[in-house]
């Protein structure tokens, strides 16, 4: 914990949560996006529709799911549909306003790699792969990305285009026939970034409290552009912090659930 | 018409060496007990299909039974990577495994096309994605009406589909509830199918739009209480998250993996799953 009273991880989740609104229909990626989406739902956006690719629509879990298909997602959902219906009618059908993704590797144009480090056919590290991401990236109205900054994660050139962001920048999406907006926001543990309207390169628009430009550049593999009117991200409110910490605590307890006999006291 | 068999006989009759086999269940209802029986029976040269090959396929790959894997997300959900699969892909241990990789949307559409008796699936996908460059089974087709370029992948038509479900009635009609995933499509796309169930009941008590596989669509049913563990069965027991977390450690070492497989799979039988889920049945 820093002397600011919150961690970089906490301000990342809370800043990401603030980017969502009550009217959004959000396709939730697992991990950091899931935490942000549920903090939004438990604070300023109680009516947000959260969708997980397992088929749960309008779900309201009390703990963060370990997988994208934990039982509570289904129990609290408005409805649960089959996986083909999820991808055909709801995602491909254009019903989802925001896709919220994490990334193993990201470039300045919001292209994401979660497939492989090194050569695809002779990989240095074989990552899990794209899952739903390739079509989430092209079919949702717009894409938010959240990840911790690191030189390994934010790179000049990604090894594999798992999902297409703005490609080489500019109008590359339109040129390949994609009509949705693509990545419109990146929330890291240090800053909030938005794409330049013309070049589509991610630009820092807001630094989190206590973070310097040097901190951001030191953990990013490309030369960082900063907005002229650079802002400071408002510190988390008491409600935001309490909500996030309580959610994390409930989640810790739930994920410890085991089939082994209870320990004798 | 389906047959009620022991787990041993259901697998022996329906899963064969060299088969293209789909074990499905999207986080929920993963047929672990059936997969373990296939491991005990020592099937080999399998082509395995699964959208989310998690622990059960990591085990089969690590046991050297798999020649090819067709998938869209190969991870331990919420935990990390599949370490036996990585060892096979990166180091060819215990044998090289050919991979054919898709997106979830492609796999879901391909199963649906299989169930629908179509040769391929058409959808709007893979735009700008590199998978289309490394997987020759991803092609494109132009809409004959609008000219729009769409993605096309071959239909999935497994030799055998294996799933777990809540229950069957005495006739052999099967009910799947909760996150129903892709299982109905997998069974209808396959030549043969094996379903493990928690129990057999007099009446399925299913609503008119419930996900039911009529008895004549299923080759064999085996009653295996707890058969999805460490996955879960909605209405019966919860997911054993701790086991998923522990798997990361077990699977990180070849010897630890072999010892774990011997103790928990090779030397175990279909009766262990009920006990493994006993403390996860708090709601029951």
User: How many angstroms does the end-to-end distance of chain B come to?
Assistant: 32 Å
The proportion of strand residues of chain B reads 15-25%
Total DSSP helices of chain A: 8
- Let me know the number of strands of chain B: 15
Highest-level CATH class of chain A: Alpha Beta
What class would the helix/strand composition of chain B place it in?
Answer: alpha/beta
Q: Which oligomeric state applies?
A: heterodimer
- What is the correct CATH architecture of chain B? 3-Layer(aba) Sandwich
Give the radius of gyration of chain A: 18 Å
Q: Please name the fourth-level CATH homologous superfamily of chain A.
A: Glutaconate Coenzyme A-transferase
Report the β-strand fraction of chain A as a percent range: 15-25%
Note poorly predicted spans of chain A: none
Taking pLDDT < 50 over at least 5 consecutive residues as the criterion, the unreliable ranges of chain B are none
Mean pLDDT of chain B: 96
> Can you identify the CATH class of chain B?
Alpha Beta
Q: Report the biggest beta sheet of chain A as strand number plus sense, adding barrel if it closes.
A: 10 strands, mixed
Which value, in Å, is the CA radius of gyration of chain B? 19 Å
CATH-defined topology of chain B? Glutaconate Coenzyme A-transferase
CATH superfamily of chain B, called what?
Glutaconate Coenzyme A-transferase
């Amino acid at each position: 914990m820093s002397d600011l009273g919150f961690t970089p991880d906490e301000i990342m989740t809370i800043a990401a949560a603030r980017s969502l609104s009550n009217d959004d229909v959000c396709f939730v990626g697992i991990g950091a996006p899931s935490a942000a989406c549920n903090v939004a739902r438990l604070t300023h956006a109680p009516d947000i529709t959260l969708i997980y690719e397992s088929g749960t629509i309008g779900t309201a879990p009390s703990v963060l799911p370990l997988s994208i298909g934990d039982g509570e997602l289904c129990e609290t959902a408005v409805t649960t549909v089959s996986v083909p219906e999820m991808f055909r009618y709801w995602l491909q059908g254009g019903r989802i306003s925001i896709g919220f993704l994490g990334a193993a590797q990201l470039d300045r144009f919001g292209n994401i790699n979660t497939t492989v480090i090194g050569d695809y056919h002779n990989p240095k590290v074989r990552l899990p792969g794209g899952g739903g991401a390739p079509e989430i990236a092209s079919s949702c109205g717009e894409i938010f990305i959240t990840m911790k900054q690191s030189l390994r994660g934010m790179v000049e050139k990604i090894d594999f285009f798992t999902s297409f962001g703005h490609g080489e920048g500019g109008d590359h999406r339109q040129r390949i026939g994609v009509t949705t907006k693509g990545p419109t926001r990146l929330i890291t543990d240090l800053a909030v970034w938005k794409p330049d309207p013309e070049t589509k390169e991610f630009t820092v628009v807001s630094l989190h409290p206590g973070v310097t430009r040097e901190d951001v550049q030191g953990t990013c593999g490309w030369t960082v552009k900063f907005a002229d009117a650079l802002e400071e991200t408002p510190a988390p409110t008491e409600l935001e912090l309490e909500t996030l910490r309580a959610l994390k605590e409930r989640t810790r307890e739930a994920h410890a659930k085991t089939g082994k006999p209870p320990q004798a006291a | 018409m389906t047959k009620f068999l022991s787990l041993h006989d259901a697998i022996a009759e329906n899963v064969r060496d060299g088969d293209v086999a789909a074990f499905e269940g999207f986080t929920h209802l993963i047929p672990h007990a059936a997969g373990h029986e296939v491991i005990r029976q020592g099937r080999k040269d399998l082509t395995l299909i699964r959208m989310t090959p998690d622990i059960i396929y990591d085990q089969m790959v690590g046991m050297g039974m798999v020649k090819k894997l067709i998938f869209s997300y190969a991870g331990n959900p919420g935990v990390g990577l599949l370490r036996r699969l990585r060892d096979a892909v990166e180091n060819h241990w215990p044998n090289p495994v050919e991979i054919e990789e898709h997106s979830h949307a492609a796999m879901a559409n391909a199963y649906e096309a299989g169930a629908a008796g179509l040769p391929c699936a058409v959808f709007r996908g893979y735009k700008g994605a590199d998978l289309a460059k490394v997987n020759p089974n991803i092609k494109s087709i132009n809409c004959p009406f609008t000219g729009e370029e769409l993605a096309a992948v071959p239909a999935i038509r497994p030799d055998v589909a294996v799933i777990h479900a809540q229950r069957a009635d005495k006739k052999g009609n099967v009910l799947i509830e909760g996150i129903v995933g892709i299982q109905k499509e997998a069974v209808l796309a396959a030549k043969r199918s094996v379903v493990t169930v928690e129990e057999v009941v007099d009446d399925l008590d299913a609503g008119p739009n419930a996900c039911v596989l009529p008895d004549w669509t299923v080759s064999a049913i085996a009653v295996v209480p707890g058969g999805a563990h460490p996955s879960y069965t909605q209405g019966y027991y919860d997911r054993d998250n701790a086991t998923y977390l522990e798997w990361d450690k077990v699977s990180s070492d070849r010897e630890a993996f072999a010892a774990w497989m011997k103790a928990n799979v090779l030397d175990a039988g279909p009766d262990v799953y009920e006990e493994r889920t006993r403390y996860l049945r708090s709601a029951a």
